[in-house]
Specification:
This protein is of the alpha/beta class. Helices cover 23% and strands 15% of the residues. It has 6 helices and 8 strands, in the order ββαβαβαββββααα.
Length: 281
């Protein structure tokens, strides 16, 4: 199990992350210098709320299956000036439609808000401010509600672009995304980075990689739990690190790879046991 229960809370059991990584030949990329993984521990909230809000991946089956939830709403709440790019919104909807069986459709609901928060964000800040803005409980009737917040400010761990804090809530930090833009010709662009990071964080809500299951294929990065070791997967560990901007050639991955998709299909079919679910069919 990837989460350890202490009292009424679940905490992510995050090993010390490796400090550097050399580039591989799997995609045509050039690293200006070795990518430092500092800050990636912020990918999962380390002070997770009580079980009723679940852990990242706790509503995986609710999303994949249409047995109870036949429609889905993704609420995107953002501070003034931090509205996500339309390309990010469209891409997220496309990726969710590819894997989540929702015959009544998936709707994106955009709301400008004032989170009333100053300074750095902790995972608990993200969770509490996010839940204050939710229009509905994540499990409302036959509709599943997930949420992404786009606040001003940065995460407490340096270089973290996004974080998943419970079963239905993620945050994307636009200021850090802008800072991560590539140093040469602005490639990858902040928009391209936002595209990938948003899908990546919702991938964690889908339980990837090995958050609420054990894959029959060894594609989890040995030094970065919960992440893929494949540079062609949007779940690759470096996607949510500010150092991603050091990749100056090649296209950032913005889709799940075949191992990710097979894991999701296996959980849906029951061939892969899925744990820590707030709802099961």
């Amino acid at each position: 199990m990837r989460f350890q229960k202490i009292g009424d809370n679940f905490f992510y059991n995050n090993d010390i992350l490796g400090e550097t990584m050399a580039s591989s030949n799997s995609i045509p990329v050039l690293l200006v210098f070795l990518m430092i993984s500092a800050g990636l521990s912020g990918c999962f909230g380390d002070d997770s709320k009580a079980l009723e809000r679940g852990i990242p991946g706790g509503l995986t089956l609710a999303c994949l299956s249409d047995d109870k939830y036949t429609s889905m709403v993704v609420e995107i709440d953002y501070d003034s000036g931090y509205m996500p790019e339309q390309s990010s919104i469209d891409l997220l909807k496309t990726r969710l439609e590819q894997v989540c069986d929702k015959p009544q459709g998936i709707e994106i609901l955009l709301t400008e808000t004032d989170f009333g928060h100053e300074g750095q964000w902790s995972s608990n800040d993200v969770r509490e401010k996010g839940w204050n803005e939710k229009s509905n409980n994540p499990e409302s009737g036959s509709t599943l509600y997930w949420q992404a917040i786009f606040p001003s400010g940065q995460y407490a761990n340096d270089g973290v672009l996004g974080v998943a804090v419970d079963a239905s809530t993620v945050a994307i930090f636009g200021d850090t995304v802008d800072d991560a833009e590539g140093p040469i010709f602005n490639r990858p662009s902040a928009e391209e980075i936002e595209n990938s990071v948003l899908v990546h964080e919702f991938g964690h809500l889908l339980g990837l990689v090995n958050l609420v299951y054990e894959s029959p294929v060894e594609h989890e990065d040995e030094e970065h739990e919960g992440h893929s070791n494949n540079e062609d997967s949007v779940m690759y560990w470096a996607i949510e690190s500010a150092n991603i901007g050091n990749i100056i050639t090649g296209q950032l991955p913005d889709d799940f790879d075949s191992d990710d998709l097979n894991d999701l299909a296996g959980m849906l079919s029951g061939e892969i046991e899925t744990n820590n679910q707030l709802w099961t069919n």
